[in-house]
Structures are given as C-alpha cells and as structure tokens.
What does this fold into?
Amino acid sequence: MKNIIYAVYHELKWEARSKEVLLALQQIGKVTIITIDDIPEECKNEHTKVIICKSISKLPGSRYLKFMYHIFDEMKKQRPDCLLLHDMPLPIKYMRKHYPKTKLLYDQSELVIDRKAKNIKQYIFTLFDKVEKSSIKHLDLYIAACKERADIAIPYFEIAKEKVVVFDNMHKITDFCSIEDGDAKYGHLFPENTFNIVYGGGIRYDRGTYELTAAMKQLGPSYRLIIAGNPWGGEQAFRDYLKREGISNVDFIGFIARNEWGYLIKKCHASVVFFLQNTVNNKYCASGKMYESLFLHKPILCSSNPPLYNLCKEFECGVASDDLVGAIKDLKTNYQKYVDGAVHFDKATDYESRISTLANQIKNHIG
It folds into this structure.
C-alpha cells in the first residue's frame, strides 16, 4: 500500500469534492489527512489517520501556522510516497527539493489568477498567488475542477498537459426527507398552475439574487422563485426590497438541510445556477449545484459562464443566458425538451465510477 499525506484546509463535511478525493486516495493506500475538523464517518477506517489542526492562540492565522507545521512534521516523519495539497501552494518547492522521491499532487478547486489587492489581507493572498504560479510546474499531477479550468491552467502554470487530470465538482443528492414531511413544511410554496424555480445561492448581490428577483417581477404570478441558503446578513434588506417593489412571487426560506433541498428540487420545474463573470474563477465556474438538479432530471437555468453554457448546449438540459426573463420563458415553453436533456445527461454520466477513475489516474502518476 502507498503511504499518502493529504492536506486540506477546510471541513470535508461541507466540501463533497474534497471528501471524494479522500475516498479516491483510500483506494490507493494508507492516508494521513491533515485538516481543520474531523472527517465524515463514512471516510473513517483503520488505514486513515486524521490530524485536526486547532488554533494555538487567539492571534489571526495561528491555526494556519499549525496546519503548515503538521504538513512539514508529517513529511519529515513519514517521507511518504505521495503528498496531495489542496489549494495550498506554499510547500511545493520545498518538498520537491527536500523530498525528491515523494510524488507531489495538487488539487485546485479555486482558480484565482487575477486577484486584485484592495486591502492588506488581499495583498497577502496575491503573494500566495505568485507562489502558486511559480510552483505548480514542479508537480507530478495537477487536478482541475473542470475542463475549462484545465485548459487555462496548462499554459498559465506552464504545466505539461499529460500531468493534468479533471475531476469534476459533481454533487448527487441521495438522501431526501419524506414527501409527507416536505409537503407539510414547504408544500405551500408550490401552488398549482405556476412554473416553480428553486435557487440555493442565498441572498447576495454578487450571486444573482436580485437579478433573478427582478426577472420574476416581470414574469408575474404564473412563475415562482424559491430561494434557499445563507442570507449573508442581507435578509431584511431583501425583504424590504420585495415589499417596496411589490414582488409576491419570490420566497426566501433560509438555510435548509440537504435532504430538504433534495425535496425542493424534486418538487420544482427547474433550478438556478448563477455566477458573475467578474473573475476567472467565477467565469469558469465549477459548480456542483447544476449536477444535483440534472441527476434528478430537472433542467437548469444558468448564467452564460462557459462551463454552464457548454453543458446546456451539449445535452440541451437547460438554458444558459444573461436574458433571465427570456431564458425562463424558454424553459417553460420547451420544458419537455429540457427534461429529456437532463435525463440524457444522467444516462450518459457514470457518476459511480468517478472516484475509482480518479484513484486510477493518481496511481498511474505516482507509480
């Protein structure tokens, strides 16, 4: 069995893709995961060691320093066959120099290559970006979150094409609340004879919430939008906006459990995936939300970002357009065509083999 260290600075219970990467690594060998919270129960086994990094003081960045310490400490102790870093460029050059036999892998879920420094914190992150740009070419394997990002990363980071693989940020909902419980809690949000759309992006100006709401005002009462997710401190302002504009066909229900979100998707006609195109990371988005709907055979309404547009075009499973009013009308008018496209996507996608495919790709690169 290979000896692997996996360093990821977020909670796997909220990040399905990072959890799936761990599951792939577990197919290859013994894994030491360095992270900031305990891993999900389904990821625990006798061959997986978990190191949880806690803040060592109240000083900003102390937990991050502890995280970095554990990476270097475990590398020194184990001299593993493989080190996989998640959005963590700082150790790459050092590890390449001091541990030349260890294969270095990098999983980049956020492609931030055009950051603008507006404050000291952002300036520090631009320094990280520069380190990342100069380091990635030294990797043995680079894992991109979608094809469009891979195509950008290859020339930007000057990394060989054969060292790049794509692991799409796919989510599939498999647990649902009962129909009875869902109807009792949310059934009133789905009146008959309305075209119902759900959106899980919460309330933020940069997530399209207000653009969608303005579109619903134009469309009128035969259309309905249900918004779930984090209000980001903007709930009262949003409710004031609805009242001021006389918008009665939009509901905000706040953060909900994943099994309830699955109920909403099953109950609706379509769901929304929306990203601004103000940065490379946003423009070439790698959203798991669109897959949640498509696997449940529900079409998607999308902004015109290239990954979203390309998917809609390939499978005819939704509409990607900046004209939200026209797109929603198109969805309703040609609804069965887009449902058939969602079904086509589901049948054409081997979701269950994704993790084993990634495991085999990693095996091929680490020997």
